[in-house]
Amino acid sequence: MPGALKNPFGIRSKLVFLSSFLLVIPWLGYQYILEMEEYLRRGQEQVVLGTAQALATALNERPELFDEGTFSPARRSENLYVYPIYSPLSLDDLTLVDWRDYQRYELSYGRANTIATPLNPQSEFSRYYHNDESLNFKLLLGEHNRYLYAYVKVVDNNIVYRAPDSLSIHRSDFLQVSMVSRDNQLQRFVISPRGPEFIYAYEIGDDLRDIGALEHEERISGQWYETEDGYIVEMRMPLNMLGDNFGLAIYDVDSAEARNVNAVVATSSVNNPQRLGSLLRPTPEIDKIVEGMGHTNSRIQVVDRGSRVLLSVGDIQSASGLSIAPESPEESDNRYWRYIENNILHPMYYRVLTKPSNDFIDELYTGSTLAGAHLSAALDGQPRTQFRSIDDNRTRILEAAYPIYADGEIMGAVAVDQNMNGIRTFRNQALETLFNTILGVMLLVVFGLFFFASRISARIRALRNQAENIIDDNGRLKNTIVASGNSDEIGDLSRSFYNIVERLGQYTNYLENMSSRLSHELRTPVTVVRSSLENLGMTAQDKESSVYIQRAEEGISRLNLILTNMSEATRLEQMLQTSEKEVIDLEKVLAGCVEGYRLAYPDAVIKADLQGPVMINGVPEYIAQLMDKLIANAVEFTYPQKPITVFCRAIKGRAVLRVTNYGPYLPEEMKGRLFDSMISVRPQEKQREPHLGMGLHIARLVSEFHQGQIRAENIAEFEGVAITLLIPLLPDPHR
Question: Per the record, what are the reactions this protein catalyses (predicted)?
């Protein structure tokens, strides 16, 4: 119906909308995986607490391990003390800021610690004759995660580096590291740089001057950098290189020309294994016990009653607890899928998910003491676990502490920490797999529904197009609907439409032929009545009879005119089918017609606005018949003394013929139906002769015969109506 609103949502849109409820499936999967993550978190909590309990049980009833005296090394001793470090140290930041919590334990060496070596052949009492304080150093050793860390802060008023092209390592300032290995062999290493750089250690033989005996030792790493009053060497080496004896010596060269060793300051006699200092660690027994726990993928720390860290194994960045197996090579070979994952799916997923990162700093453990509610509870005798978030909640830490008892007293506690990145990574991988699978299934379902809806929409649209093409612009049935052979509802609807159209076509054909049948059937009785009235008129003598006979003849004339009008359109259609067109000048045809209309309608003002030539392919007689209908219609509706204008031009490849008159506007609802058969807008009381609404219908038949278009419209500039005819022009042969 005309007033119905168009629904913006078609079948496809509705099916896609309904399929959006499938999004509840990934939500349910997401909730399931979050629940699974919670179970994993609880399991990891029990594992961490169990690790702390197992280690605390191994340390119970051993009070000597927590003796305070082990943390007060005697100064001026040849022995070297190693202190537990809570986190890995940076060896390339050119500062000692990482050591700030331990620098109070550093040892100083100077004039009293000079020794004689083959490079400075003096007596072993040379320290008594070395009065120069220009050479001294400070030393600190620490242990973290099975590595020995050390820094040597040297005061030297003149630093001499190894020449760029020199292979000798003894003709410049250098550092000698001596140790007795675990198989009781003396090993000596030399660090002799060519400038501030990463250290490059060499193992030497019996003689420092023997270049051929030098071997690179890559397990010793670190940095040599300068300070205002000398230089600093930071280095690291694995503990499994070391035995029980250890020493360091600074060799000083003051002249870059002579390059002789002037003095050597050392922690002990570095060239004699019997006189090397001992390497003392405050918690050697604890270390042996904890060493077996080093494979738990956790950070383990042992603290005493004062929350002082005695030992730290592992670092929190790598202590993820849950190990994720790496992807097999087969899964990563599809580079197209990897591209989709990395550039489309992952950026979308990680707007919701939290991507764990091991690049964080645990600021709670930035000192030599440990703190936390879990540790406080353990030192009060209550094992506890807790979760802690750092780095804007992107990383969570699981911490557990268990008390250590000796003689019924709490001597300390074991703290075991893990980050939750392993579980989060596992959760993310599970969610990615789930989302990828669900996304694939949903895409298949949505595309399937979309294809199904498109198929249904296409069939409905095809049925609609057939229904729209059944009736032409003139309201006539010109096609039928092809009945579908499908057994569904749409096929059944098309067959119902087919039956309706067939019956409607039969009825329309009956109506179209009714006028010609009536005209044919009524013409004979009308002729009989007319002839009888003529005969009666010749025999009738009285005046009253003559009046009645005259009225009867007028009625017969009107009836005859009706029959003529009814058959005129039918005859014209039949003639149009057999007529042949010719090249005519429309302007000349119209000029002749206008002259005739001025004679036929002396009371009407008919103006001609013609400009030619306007060459078309047509039949002049039919054009004149069309003009007869248009002018007759205009004359009947034009206001008195108002002109009727006939306009003709060749415009943009078409002949434009327009007849305008001053008169009442056409009703809006009649504009589209004005040229249909048996349509009239004349008031019944104003009809001077019978009208069946066939005049403009005939005009439309003539315009269609000439491949033209005809329309009627109201004029906005004044009260009037214009009927416009557009006919294609003949192609211009000169173009």
Answer: ATP + protein L-histidine = ADP + protein N-phospho-L-histidine
Q: How many CB atoms lie within 10 A of CB 48?
A: 24
Q: How many CB atoms lie within 10 A of CB 533?
A: 18
Q: pLDDT at residue 1 above 60?
A: no
CB distance 723 to 626 below 8 Å: no
Beta strands in 314-439 (DSSP E): 384-390, 395-406, 409-419
CA 300, 304, 308: angle at the middle one, nearest 5? 80
d(CA 399, CA 302): 13
Going by C-beta distance under 8 Å and a sequence separation of 6 or more, which residues neighbour residue 215? Answer: 202, 203
Q: State residue 75's pLDDT score.
A: 42
What does residue 62 show for φ and ψ, rounded to 5 degrees?
A: -135, 75
Q: Are 474 and 700 in contact (CB under 8 A)?
A: yes
696-to-19, 198, 326, 629, 645 alpha-carbon distances in Å: 55, 105, 86, 7, 18
**How far is Cα 663 from Cα 640, in angstroms, rounded to an integer?**
9
Q: What is each CA distance from 528 to 71, 241, 514, 531, 554, in whole angstroms?
A: 147, 141, 22, 5, 15
Phi/psi at 406 (5° precision)? -150, 125
pLDDT tens string 305-359: 877 777 777 767 666 766 555 555 455 556 776 767 777 676 666 666 666 666 6
* pTM (predicted TM-score): 0.43
Q: Identify the pLDDT of residue 29.
A: 76
Give how far Cα 391 sits from Cα of 44, 321, 359, 360, 612, Å: 21, 19, 9, 7, 89
Instruction: Report residue 299 CA to chain centroid gap.
Output: 39
Distance CA 202, CA 514 (A): 122
Residue bearing tokens 């909590």 = 45
Tell me whether residue 451 is exposed, middle or buried, using C-beta atoms within 10 angstroms of its C-beta: 0 to 12, 13 to 18, 19 or more. exposed
Q: Where are the alpha helices (DSSP H) in 297-381?
A: 335-340, 346-349, 373-379
Nearest to 270 by CA among 175, 337, 159: 175
Taking the C-alpha atoms of residue 156 and residue 224, their distance in angstroms, rounded to an integer, is: 14
pLDDT-wise least confident of 59-68, 131-140, 586-595: 59-68
Q: Which residues, in sequence order, are bridge partners of residue 141?
A: 82, 150
Nearest to 586 by CA among 623, 559, 558: 623
3-state secondary structure of 463: helix
Distance (Å, whole) CA 259 – CA 700 = 121
Torsion 419-423-429-432 (CA) sign: negative
Residues contacting residue 659 through CB under 8 Å, at least 6 positions apart: 627, 630, 631, 634, 644, 645, 646, 647, 722, 723
Give the three-state DSSP class for 475.
coil
* Domains defined for the chain, CATH in brackets: 79-275 (2.60.40.1190), 489-572 (1.10.287), 579-728 (3.30.565.10)
Instruction: Identify the burial level of 543 via C-beta atoms within 10 angstroms of its C-beta, where 0-12 means exposed, 13-18 middle and 19 or more buried.
Output: exposed
Q: In this structure, how many other beta carbons lie within 10 angstroms of the beta carbon of residue 157?
A: 12
Q: Hey, what are 563's tokens? A: 């029959």
d(CA 301, CA 413): 8
Q: Rounded to a whole number, what is the largest CA-CA distance in the chain?
A: 184
pLDDT reading at 128 higher than 50? no
Per-residue pLDDT reduced to its tens digit, 570-605: 666 666 666 788 888 888 888 888 888 888 888 888
* DSSP 8-state code for residue 67: -
- Statement: residue 108 has pLDDT above 70: yes
